[in-house]
Amino acid sequence: MAADRLSQVFAALADPTRRDIVARLTLGDASVAELAQPYDVSTQAVSKHVKVLQDAGLVSRGRDAQRRPCHLEAEVLDLMTAWIERYRRAADERFRRLDALLAQDQNSERPEPGAAS
Amino acid sequence: MAADRLSQVFAALADPTRRDIVARLTLGDASVAELAQPYDVSTQAVSKHVKVLQDAGLVSRGRDAQRRPCHLEAEVLDLMTAWIERYRRAADERFRRLDALLAQDQNSERPEPGAAS
DNA sequence: TTCTTTCACAACCAATTGGTTGCATACGAC
DNA sequence: GTCGTATGCAACCAATTGGTTGTGAAAGAA
Predict the structure, then answer these.
(1) I need a labelling partner for A16 at 20 to 30 A (CA). Which of A10, A22, A37, A83 fits?
(2) How confident is the model at residue B115 (pLDDT cuts 50, 70, 90)?
(3) The pLDDT value given to residue B105
């Protein structure tokens, strides 16, 4: 349970059902029972999924009479985007340097067209 | 093993060690032994982690004598970014609509905010 | 050839996960 | 108060995961 936030978010979204739930919540808040409707699993199972999303900070719960509607906290997604983009960019830059090196290597034979998209 | 690619990528990056390995690979290709160096786990354990990354399509292997260097396939990260951004944007738009509705609400009456389903 | 290095595969074990069911609780209706 | 709905919590089970060790294959070096 003591995993870092980023791992929790990644793990939470590794399950197709939970990604589905997140997608569903972009359309509007929903109770556990409403979320469980499309699936043929028990509401308890969905409740567990929601708890995972909640622990990851992706979902917050409200209170409306007996219902406790789930609300998507989309900002947490930025955590992942930040991580991904960081290393995506690092990899890209490395590839660019590598390409440049190769181009320099073959300078006499094949001048490199600027293929750095 | 029959999970969809997106789930595999999310699950692969849910482990801090594997995220570390990916980060390490942005600096350059590396063998399993080199990757295992900083950790106090067996090379076999690292080999398993690499296999997970490989199954997710994040890493490809080469051949250099006995060494089988790991190479980062960064394009797969775009899969995740696409998913995240899609729902991030959907959530943002919904919030904007909600805000607009609330602003309208203050100007006139109260036309039931939660009934957008 | 034999030795060493690098690594994958198989078997095994402990911990976690995703599901179940049953019971308890919170709230509104009666 | 009692009843019904929505939900959480605990216990349990099967499957998966992350680690281990042992064996063995592939590719050079001696």
Answers:
(1) A83
(2) very low
(3) 62
pLDDT for residue A84 is more than 70: yes
Secondary structure (3-state) at A9: helix
* Cα(A80)–Cα(A49) distance, integer angstroms: 19
| DSSP H or E stretch at residue B71 | strand B70-72
Judge: B74–A88 Cβ closer than 8 Å, yes or no.
Answer: yes
Beta bridge partners of A72: A59
Q: Please, are residues A50 and A42 in contact by the beta-carbon 8 Å criterion?
A: no
B65 torsion bin: left (phi>0), alpha (psi -120 to 50), beta (else): left
| Closest residue to B114, CB basis, from A29, A81, A83 | A29
Tell me the domains of chain B and their CATH numbers: 5-75 (1.10.10.10)
Q: Is B85 on the interface with A (CB under 8 A)?
A: yes
